[in-house]
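## tool: complex_structure
## caller: assistant
## args:
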Amino acid sequence: MPARRIAGTVAGHVLAAIGVAIAVATLAFIAVQAAPGDVAFRIAEARYGERISLQTVDRARQATGLDQPIIVQYGRWVGSAMTGQLGRSMVSGRQVATEVWRSFQTTLSIAVVGVSLALVASLAIGFAAGMRRDGLVDRIFLVVSAVLSSVPSFLLGIILITIFAIGLRWLPAAGNNRPGYFILPACTLALALLPDLSRVARNAVVRTMQDFYPTYGRIKGQSWLRIVFAHALRPTLVPVIAYFGPLVAHTIGGLVVIDVLFNLDGLGTRLIDSVLAADIPMAMGAGLLIGISVVVVNGIADIAVQVLDPRLFNAQPRP
Amino acid sequence: MTAPSLDEGAVTRRSRPPLAIVLFGFLPLAAMLLLALLGPLLLTVDPNRQALSAASAPPSAAYRLGADNLGRSIAARVIAGARVSLGIAVAGVIASLVTGLALGFLAAFHAGWIRQVVMRLSDVIIACPGLLFVILISGLLGGGIGPILFGLWMSQWPGFARLTAATTARELATDHVEAARLLGFGRGYIFRAHVLPAITPYLTSLGALTVGANVLTISSVGFLGLGLRPPDAEWGAMIAGTMTFFRTSPHMVLAPAAAILICTLSATLIGEYYSARR
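## result:
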């Protein structure tokens, strides 16, 4: 029975993914078109530099199909995207799919390492603080997390770079061609996500500890470690995983800043650069991939929550 | 369960905030706001004036917070940046608050299609990453104060609208509002006398939290180089411009960083104080 439910959930998420992907790519298209100034002019500027003649602009306009009506341009893109063709960059002429895919790998490695670090650290901190509500650890945690959440992520990154790349020379400071390049960006991301995520974890632990079974475990003579790992971890994970929806939005914003700070060609830089250069196919390609990632993460979180707490299946029928 | 007594509510309403909140919340934020408002009067030096002989000077009597790598007074630039950051942050919250209050109230009073439109629209906007939204808008519209403000307003009014709609709907369902309605009082009166006082703590909390978040967002946009045009001072841009000197002259980075931290932390503390109190 749960397998069928999960299959249904997956199908729902796949449909949602297609919808969101199209919506995001459309927004990227509208964003580029709605910006003040001639798109062809910006393309020509990005291609050939600041000093360009009107003939150059017209040539760029024809070469990129920008002389067609907007509806035709949009329809063409959707049509080819359906068959897996994302087209070529209007600026560099390279395949959008290859370029975006390369950026995606950079972003994915940073995001996976960063979010995993944040998750593990949040659970550890959450248990340390939440097991004794209003205890010393809890109070220190609340103060530190309030301060940490008030520090902009780029400043965290600058501090990490100064210590580990410039001071100790352990890790590369920028670029993504040296081994271990993703460690500092991932740590920056983890630190940026930590205050919110650990607070969710701490509140979840507080709620779990109010249930009777931790007390029951103590009465039976179980150690705190056993209670945490055998009983309390699973119900605590449910709100933490459910928080991945807002978390992923936060992550995307943070990754843009991290891309710029560490000079990486991740999806964030890719999206911003292409929108600024009016490179429509590239912007739509990057938007498409970001939209799909958001939906995939939400879908995985949704299924994980249902697996972790099967009661949620029966409690609320899915709309 | 014992019946909640009326006195208890009255006492919490009138109780003054604890010392910690005053010391680390209201005072610092008030000081920064004052600094921003009085900015031009306090400035004795032009924040953009370069004195290359004083480049990277550490804090001294002439330069209270030192000078940056181009010999500009960091104190003057931090004050000038306060006008930008706090100005946009507060203006963004006021704009979002007014829009959200109006639309949320409409949605609560008209349960039909207006409510559907407002709610679905806010669902979509809330799902978007706010920072990315502001970055893209200010990038597309060419930087400056206007686009950032527009981006903040676009991404934040739904939060206020949803909060207003939810709390207003709850208040409208109470007996005393029902009584007022039966007595023939109009919507305007009910809104002023019953709904607004009831939902104010919620909105204060969200408003303060949003001011803090906005200061962070504005500094991130400035850091990316999409905010004000140089040489105008903005905290995030100041950090971006001097971060390569962090090891040799940390004061250039730490002064604007401290300003960001003070504003965000104090606003967050105020917001959480009100959200815990309601």
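## assistant note: Chain B has ten helices and no strands. The first helix of chain B runs from residue 6 to 14. Handing back to user.
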